[in-house]
What we know:
This protein is α+β, with helices and mostly antiparallel strands. It is 42% helix and 23% strand. Strands 4, 7, 8, 9, 10, 11, 12, 13, 14 and 15 form a ten-stranded antiparallel beta sheet that branches. Strands 1-2-3 form a three-stranded antiparallel beta sheet.
Amino acid sequence: MPFFILALRKVEFNRRKYYINAETLRFERVKMSLARKLKLSLVMGLGIMAVAVLLRFGFERYYSTPRQIIYQKENATLRSEYQAMNSSLQEVESQLSDLRNRDDRFYRAILGLDPVPSSIREAGTGGAIRHAQLRGLHESGVVLDVANRIDKISSKVQVQSLSLENVYKEAVINQHFLAAKPSINPISPADPYWLTSTFGYRIDPFTRRRAAHHGIDLAGPFGLDIHCTGEGTVITARKSRYGYGNEVVVDHGYGYTSRYAHLQTIHVKVGQKLKRGEIVGTLGSTGRSTGPHLHYEIRKNGRPVNPMFFFYENLSSGEYATLAMRANQPQGVHNSYTMSQK
């Protein structure tokens, strides 16, 4: 066979492959086997799929799809709502803390109940177990924080509810005791006065020696109204022989008595029943006194106690005025009389 025939044994026309048949010396088209066709199609298909996947990932990396844009907006809104909810929960926690303090230091203190232990108030609720299903969420930290806060608040509210229920039951039982126990300031907050001497030991202004002071001294202008601090019966309404000047002593029952000394005038008499807020006299400077003031003291079973510990009801000027007005109804006024300064 000539050399040029061998060289041109296989040629390509218009991208189609042909070969020279040695027997017929003619160009014949090269036919592709079925297996090769399938293999070529598979390779081309996989190539096209790979290019499509790469194009998709590349597009999504730099450009958001319409659905992603919607989800992003929804996530931003939810994140904002969670933050607002967190702020609201923080405010609720603050209010609950204030209620807790009032419960322990005010309500339960008045009734002589022990404060609720912190171990009970701060009891956990097992939030890590309860909300384990939330940990798989994207950005689950915000959701878990809100869920755990809600659990803690719910637990605290339940404890506080039980505490207030006990306080209410005790209050019903001790209703008369609460009305009788001295628990307000003897001078209205609307009147000008100031504390000049506290309970305990001090230098006596007359002897200049250290001596026990069994009450507190509240100074102010002459004639200020002095109010009874709890329901009770007047057992003393006269000028004292022991330096108290014009004094009123009220027996509140349950072992409690209160003394109002150095009065300018006395508006009550022995045996008279008094309501909390009723006027017993006016501020003066009788007896062993260096100026106009009220000596106010409370005794429990005959022993002096610090009156500052009994100012439970932090009344505003308006509330105090309403209390005094109700206490000083005509029935109380008709049963009172005035003792002038001697």
